[in-house]
Amino acid sequence: MNREPELSIEKIFISAERGGLQVDCARVALVTGMGIVGDRSFGKNAYPGQSVTLVEAEEIELFCAEQGRTVDLAMTRRNLVTRGVRLNGLVGREFMVGTARLRGVELCEPCSALGQLLADTSLAPAEVVRRWVGRGGLLAEVLASGSVAPGERLVVIG
């Protein structure tokens, strides 16, 4: 019997301030046009998709395996960590997470801050950035308010 893979939210992280502690959340509220309540980007609209970031758990796990590191799903500082879904295919598409409706805006390509954060003695910041190009996740905007918790499904609707 063939079953489609479960597309789900594995973990949720917010940080009250830029560079601040990543908080692992049991449930978060998402507000139309504003983002995730309590997150550093809530209400900021300097560019489309600034309010919610997603990354694939599988990409984090692969990076950690390649580098011989312990898996830390908070390491990329993205908000929603997914499992079973290729986020690159969600650019321009609408999807549900929990009871909130989102739209993928563009890929969340790595920046120098991520390079610095994940660099170590065997991997320079520029190498980290090159490694994460096309794998850094997705920027999304909230189209309809709702809430989401780990374990809930991600459902593509358009």
CATH superfamily, called what?
PK beta-barrel domain-like
Kindly state the number of beta strands.
Answer: 11
Helix percentage range:
10-25%
Q: Largest beta sheet, briefly?
A: 8 strands, mixed
Number of discrete helical segments:
3
Number of domains: 1
CATH topology: M1 Pyruvate Kinase, Domain 3
| Unreliable runs | none
Percent of residues in beta strands?
A: 25-35%
For the record, the CATH architecture stands as Beta Barrel
**H and E string:** EEEEEHEEEHHEEE
List keywords for this structure.
M1 Pyruvate Kinase, Domain 3, 8-stranded mixed beta sheet, 3 helices, 3-stranded antiparallel beta sheet, 158 residues, alpha+beta
Task: Explain briefly what this protein structure is.
With 158 residues, this protein is of the alpha+beta class. The chain has one domain (8-148): M1 Pyruvate Kinase, Domain 3 (Beta Barrel). 16% of the residues lie in helices and 31% in strands.
Describe this structure in words.
It is globular, with a radius of gyration of 15 Å. The chain has an 8-stranded mixed β-sheet. Strand 3 and strand 4 (35-36) form a beta hairpin. It has helices spanning 57-67, 112-118, 125-132; strands at residues 8-14, 23-24, 28-31, 35-36, 52-56, 80-83, 94-97, 100-107, 138-144, 146-148, 154-156. Helix 2 (112-118) crosses helix 3 (125-132). The two termini are 27 Å apart. It has a single domain (8-148), classed as PK beta-barrel domain-like (M1 Pyruvate Kinase, Domain 3, Beta Barrel), CATH 2.40.33. Helix content is 16%, strand content 31%. It is an alpha+beta fold.
